[in-house]
């Protein structure tokens, strides 16, 4: 090597990023695999039901297995970044994360909407396909926008994709009337690309999110096995998701306004003194 020259693959004198998979990348791949398995499970159940001549929506056990897989995908997504910060990541980490999120939190929930919209008892229209496409495109746009932004504060701009995916699936599981469900799904898609802010789960909050995921898995497992008060278990896992998504932005806004008032009072006190 000639003295003063950068190593091969270096950019601007900086060492080239590692291109080998590390532990955080394997967690990200686990996210993608869970999303793929959820779609495969729904598709296989749908094909089997059609082959058996059974009409109507999928059974609760088929839906619950797919939802649990996506909850596992959300758990992988929650911790891959934390592992990368603690143990180091690779140069592929950010790109892998976006690609995995498109599968698990874009295509998979969109497929849930299509399955719900085409297997229900009503005469379904093209609206479920429109709503499913809106979810997928919203996730793609959100991830592209997030990649182009420089992290500036402790909040996400727009609803994070995992929360959006869980909200869409919650709507599907509650099985509302067609137009109510379509409206709710379109609202969630809009929230993901909106300017509404959601706090980033860090520190203790991240573990609270993980605990919430585990409780949701337990509720869905009980619902799938038709445990006593199965419907109550479904609502116990579903309603907090929707409330969290709807109320958190108001909490962020109220906190920001309170912080602004505190700063104004502090400046006023300094001026009076």
UniProtKB/TrEMBL annotation:
GO molecular function, one term: CDP-diacylglycerol-serine O-phosphatidyltransferase activity
Localization, UniProt: Endomembrane system; Membrane
Keyword Nucleotide-binding among record annotations: no
Known catalytic reactions: a CDP-1,2-diacyl-sn-glycerol + L-serine = a 1,2-diacyl-sn-glycero-3-phospho-L-serine + CMP + H(+)
UniProt keyword annotations, A-Z: Lipid biosynthesis, Lipid metabolism, Membrane, Phospholipid biosynthesis, Phospholipid metabolism, Transferase, Transmembrane, Transmembrane helix
EC number: 2.7.8.8
Pfam name, any one: CDP-OH_P_transf
One cellular component (GO) term of this entry: endomembrane system
GO biological process terms held by the UniProt record: phospholipid biosynthetic process
Annotated transmembrane regions: 21-43, 63-79, 99-119, 125-144, 205-226, 232-254
Membership in a protein family: Belongs to the CDP-alcohol phosphatidyltransferase class-I family.
Name of this chain's protein: CDP-diacylglycerol--serine O-phosphatidyltransferase
Organism of provenance: Murinocardiopsis flavida
Lineage of the species this protein comes from: Bacteria, Bacillati, Actinomycetota, Actinomycetes, Streptosporangiales
């Amino acid at each position: 090597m000639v003295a003063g020259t950068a190593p091969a693959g270096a950019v601007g004198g900086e060492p080239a990023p590692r291109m080998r998979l590390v532990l955080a990348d394997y967690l990200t791949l686990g996210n993608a695999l869970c999303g793929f398995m959820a779609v495969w499970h729904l598709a296989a159940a749908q094909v089997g039901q059609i082959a058996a001549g059974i009409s109507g929506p999928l059974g609760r056990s088929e839906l619950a297995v797919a939802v649990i897989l996506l909850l596992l995908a959300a758990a992988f997504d929650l911790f891959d970044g934390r592992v990368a910060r603690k143990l180091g990541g690779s140069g592929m980490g950010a790109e892998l994360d976006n690609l995995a999120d498109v599968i698990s939190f874009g295509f998979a929930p969109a497929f849930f909407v299509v399955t719900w919209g085409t297997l229900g008892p009503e005469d379904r229209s093209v609206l479920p396909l429109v709503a499913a496409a809106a979810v997928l495109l919203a996730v793609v746009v959100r991830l592209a926008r997030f990649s182009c932004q420089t992290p500036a504060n402790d909040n996400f701009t727009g609803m994070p994709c995992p929360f959006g995916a869980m909200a869409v699936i919650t709507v599907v599981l509650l099985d509302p009337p067609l137009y109510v469900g379509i409206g709710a799904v379109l609202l969630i898609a809009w929230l993901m690309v909106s300017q509404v802010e959601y706090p980033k789960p860090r520190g203790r909050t991240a573990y609270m999110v993980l605990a919430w995921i585990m409780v949701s898995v337990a509720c869905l497992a009980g619902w799938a096995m038709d445990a006593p008060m199965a419907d109550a278990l479904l609502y116990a896992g579903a309603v907090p998701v929707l409330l969290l998504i709807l109320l958190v932005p108001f909490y962020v806004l109220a906190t920001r306004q309170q912080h602004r008032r505190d700063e104004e009072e502090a400046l006023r006190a300094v001026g009076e003194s």
